[in-house]
Amino acid sequence: MHNAADMNIERLIERLDDAVLNGRVHEADELTSVLFRMQGGTDEIAVMPEPFIDNLKVQNVIKFKERRMKPTHTKKIIYIVAAAAIVTALSITAVATGFFGVRDLVIEDDTPVSASVGAVADGVTTPVIAPEPSPSYDMISMQGYPDSPEYKAAEEWSIFTRHYDEDGSIIAEVGNNPNEYTERYPLYLVYSKDMADKLEEIVGKYGLTLHESITIAENADALFSAAGTGDFLSGTGIGYSMQGGYAYDDGTFLYDGQVALTSGKLVDYQFGNYVKGTFSDVSLNVGDADSYREWQFETSSGVTVSLALGDSKALVITDLDNSFVVINVLTGTAGSDFGSSAITEDDLEMFADLFDFSVIN
Predict the structure, then answer these.
(1) DSSP conformational letter for 110
(2) Residues forming beta bridges with residue 170, ordered by sequence position
(3) What is the DSSP letter of 255?
(4) CB environment 229-253: b (16+ within 10 A), e (fewer)
(5) pLDDT tens digit string along 236-257?
(6) Cα–Cα distances in Å, from 187 out to 190, 222, 343?
(7) Strand intervals (E) in the chain
(8) Among residues of the chain, what percentage have pLDDT more than 70?
(9) What pLDDT score was predicted for residue 328?
(10) What is the rounded CA–CA span in Å between residue 42 and residue 34?
């Protein structure tokens, strides 16, 4: 039988879950403080000792967070999980999954960049092109969240290709002439044996298959047919236009589109649907991943999406049963260079609600 304290804790946990999942950070902070003190904690020990943190990582609670979150965010996650863990594992899951967003998709490349060198012959130094410095922007995977094999494969391939053939000597030797590797992997940027071996290693390691063929779609009906989906654009109305797209044999597809919102704003976007179980190597530059305002939104088709709104870009992300969808919205709160109107949070929700994600799977 639960005593009064246990029942109070359970009610506070329910409120905490709701606050976290709906982005009410201040309320979540207050609730975690109360819960922590009710369970014997004090402010002085709000930052958990390293063994406790390591134990949480092993349990996959913050496994995908520790490299991507600033120290204050890490502390907050540990604080919330510590308060909830004593009562119910279900609450831990709700809290953890509520934080998935753009930051979780960032490809973390910790590989050190080698210094520039020069070749010396007969006393003459021939300079070698220096490798690119680490980028000052964030690249995200568009294939799934970090716990998925699709994300792990895309991240590993992205890091490999960034550091492969840094001086461009191998591709310069290949030139524009096809070889056995470009012909064997026409849908991927593979032009050497090392690249082919690495690609096969990655897809084998994560149990994925490769795209085998591609169909160019000149209109929406052709795209639906090639990808094997229903009409997920039925809600976009007369303001919709499709500006080109394609679908792979496995159902993965991408297209460029434009839509007019009922507010009169024109929005250009790129829609990507990445089928689970297949390897895709598309990544996206999102600038500073920490600069986005993020929240969850349930569409009229009953699918919950993650929304992220930045100055010049926005994203609509949803993890479906059979695929992972990322819509790259080519505008933000400050507008864009593509002619799209500046948008608000309400505009982004209105945009996301135009698509019937339930008929994609």
Answers:
(1) -
(2) none
(3) E
(4) beebbeebeeeeebeebbbbbbbbb
(5) 655 677 888 999 999 999 999 9
(6) 9, 20, 35
(7) 118-121, 124-127, 138-141, 214-217, 241-248, 253-260, 266-275, 283-287, 293-298, 304-309, 314-319, 323-329
(8) 65
(9) 95
(10) 10
